[in-house]
Predict the 3D structure of the following.
Amino acid sequence: MADQRIIDIVTNAPYDYAIIGQGLAGTLLAWRLHQRGRRVIMIDRDEAFTASKVAAGLINPITGQRTCLSWRLQEFLPAAIAFYRRVERELNTPLLHSMPLVRLLPNAKALQKWNTAVSDPEIRSYLSDPQPSPLVNPELVRISEGGGGFEIATAHILDVPRFLEASRKVFKVHTAEIDIANAVTADTHCVRVRTGDKSIIADRLIFCQGADGRSGNRFFDWVPFACAKGELLTIECPAMKTETRILNGTAWIAPIPGSEPGTFRAGSTYIHDDWSKTPTTAGRAAIEGKLQQLLNVKFTVTSHTAAIRPIIAYSRALIGMHPTHTRVGFFNGLGSKGSLNGPFIAEKLAAHLEENAPLEHELDVLKNS
Ligand SMILES: Cc1cc2nc3c(=O)[nH]c(=O)nc-3n(C[C@H](O)[C@H](O)[C@H](O)COP(=O)(O)OP(=O)(O)OC[C@H]3O[C@@H](n4cnc5c(N)ncnc54)[C@H](O)[C@@H]3O)c2cc1C
């Protein structure tokens, strides 16, 4: 596999697409193009911690303080489930884990808001029971006075690191840091990406750089990024060994697919003014403090990670081609909902690239920047 990759680069065998960034966005797009029979190479610097590598992969249909269905849920959720199930079959690897999510509310006022929201039959259709009780064992999990909660019947966890790793067996992934200012050229015939003393040549190039796209990309330096750093903990909590759901209250905890029972990912912070990718003492303390309000039992922190969520000002992912370098495209801004929104949006970009399908106004990078 590795030898073949080198030969392809040395002989400059053309690819239909080169994708810079093998995070969730790049990998989703690569699959959509591969499913159309296209030859794709991805180029990634293979950092230990990126948004996709640390992400919890939660897919939660009902979100936010306002308790509403996630943006375009009726389109995005079926597209995501169908996509991940298809890739699971192709890779013979489990990727998407379905489980209930318990939303615990902090007080009677919040509960009242939820009661109003769930009078909407559409929202109610995602709940296990409109008036469930009891949701959690109060010896293990704190229930606020006057509060309560609801169980969302099916939420999901995408095992993002496994999805990325397994996809590397399907796609050529060239490990390199690309200096976009100097090493990427696009003309009317093709696109060239210089890496070391070799060039990768492709018909088109798509930037899927995540939060790194916010600076140093001379093609798309006009896109208004508004990224947010996030920190996450991994905890071990033996008393919660039998808990197989996602719990979401002051903080959230989510079982980690493939890990020992009682091991959870827990988070997370949301910081707009720190672009370092290093975990901080303050971030850890913030999550631990919220976990102590959520859990009545002891837990141990076994790891602590951080990454930057790629958010674009309108909090929507954007896709499309450069206005003058028409062989150069963009897919970024998956924000905090990449696992849910990504497969549908990647399909829209692939259909635009391959079948010339028009881009929707609200997803078009040229109309929202
Ligand atoms: C703490 C945290 C928790 C999250 N939890 C969830 C969650 O529960 N559910 C959910 O759906 N989403 C979650 N997200 C968001 C989700 O992770 C992102 O939406 C998604 O991973 C973004 O993928 P991406 O491919 O756009 O970016 P990235 O994952 O950042 O990938 C970009 C890739 O491009 C590479 N790259 C960039 N520039 C270059 C270059 N010049 N040369 C070579 N390589 C380059 C990077 O190294 C990286 O590998 C979370 C994010 C964070 C930070």
